[in-house]
Amino acid sequence: MRALITGAGGFLGIWLARALAARGDTVTCLLRPRGDASGLAGISYKRVEGDVTDAASLRPAVEGQDVVFHLAGVRRGATREDFMRVNAEGTRLLCDAMVASGHRPRLVLVGSLAAMGPSSPTRPHVEEDAFQPHEWYGESKAEAERIAFSYGDRLPVTVSRPPRILGPGDHENLTFFKLVKKGIRLELVGGPRPLTMVDVEDVVDALILQAEHPNAVGQAFFCAGPGAPLSLEAVQDLGAKALGLQPRTVRVSPWALSALASAADGVSRVTGKMLPLNRKLARQLLAPAWTCSSAKAERLLGFHPRRDLEDSIRRSAEWYREQGWL
């Protein structure tokens, strides 16, 4: 398989590139001119410089590809337009380039559970649920899906919607491990709030399956990890166990977390430095639940997550420590 990966220098992109190269696939990575490619060291791939917001750079990148894995996007932004320009309109420009190439490569778009918005604590989201994003990032990911599927008469399109992803190299959950390392276990008043999580290698397995399975075309799929949902508190407990620590519990009210997040956003605006805490993260943590079911992927594609989440957290903690991130 000849595969292009946008966003290849990110956490998921690195794991996907490694898996594809290990299979013997021909891997091309779309990277920004000054983009960090250090995580791709040791992986056999071709580098193409470009950006999903630069239409001229996309045509040569998609030329001759069998599959385009579209991972590029932004998770943080100061305005709604920041998210829409990259996550939504970047998807449109990529689809235009794929159509113009004339040979109909398959598009595997990496969406997000955030497009659906929070779930009920007692009912996980399924693919048939309506989009109900509650912040700009989720809104932009929902719009990216709409755009991608609007090309369904010209391109074979499939969408993967991962929940929160765990694994060595992840930045999104690092803050909680850092708290544990400092001896703090954060407990949010009014919880626990269920979280569906998944190991990065299970997400990679799902993406490759969607790139090859005929039943994937025209469909969106969740890829949940095995077992029951976790919670913020459970993730910290398992991280503490992996690190051999016994942090003290600090209970935080929703009001206090929101106030701290607003203050952090103010500091970010003034200094230009993105802090670990922000209003987007606070709203996510305070939602009643973020859960989804991968039953559709199991039924139509034969997808079965294989990585135990406690082991994922252990591997993450060990990797953070080895890299000096903790």
UniProtKB/TrEMBL annotation:
Domain of life per record: Bacteria
Matches recorded under SUPFAM superfamilies: NAD(P)-binding Rossmann-fold domains
Domain called NAD-dependent epimerase/dehydratase: residue spans: 3-217
InterPro entries per record: Epimerase_deHydtase, NAD(P)-bd_dom_sf, NAD(P)-dependent_oxidoreduct
GO molecular function, one term: aldehyde dehydrogenase (NAD+) activity
GO cellular component, one term: cytoplasm
Gene3D superfamilies from the UniProt entry: NAD(P)-binding Rossmann-like Domain (3.40.50.720)
Record PANTHER family: NAD(P)-BINDING DOMAIN-CONTAINING PROTEIN-RELATED (PTHR48079:SF6), PROTEIN YEEZ (PTHR48079)
Name by which UniProt lists this protein: NAD-dependent epimerase/dehydratase family protein
Taxonomic lineage from the root: Bacteria, Pseudomonadati, Myxococcota, Myxococcia, Myxococcales
